[in-house]
Amino acid sequence: MNDFQAIADRVEIEALRGEFTDAVMMRDRPRLASLFTPDGALRMPDIPAEQVGREEIRAGGERLQSQWDFFVQTTHPGTILLDGDTATGRAYVQELARTLDGRQGLNYAVYHDRYQRTTGGWKFAERLYEVRYLDTSPLAGAAPHAAQDSGTNPADTTATPAPVASFTDPATAERLERVAAALRAGGFAAEILEDAAEARARIKDLVPEGASVLTGASETLRLSGIDEDINTGGRYDAIRPRLLAIDRATGADEIRRLAAGPEFVVNSVAAVTETGSLVLASGSGSQLPANAGGAAHAVWIVGAQKVVPDLSTALRRVEEHALPLENARAQAVYGMPSAVNRLLILNAEPHPGRGTVLLLREAIGY
Question: Does the global pTM surpass 0.85?
Answer without folding.
Answer: no
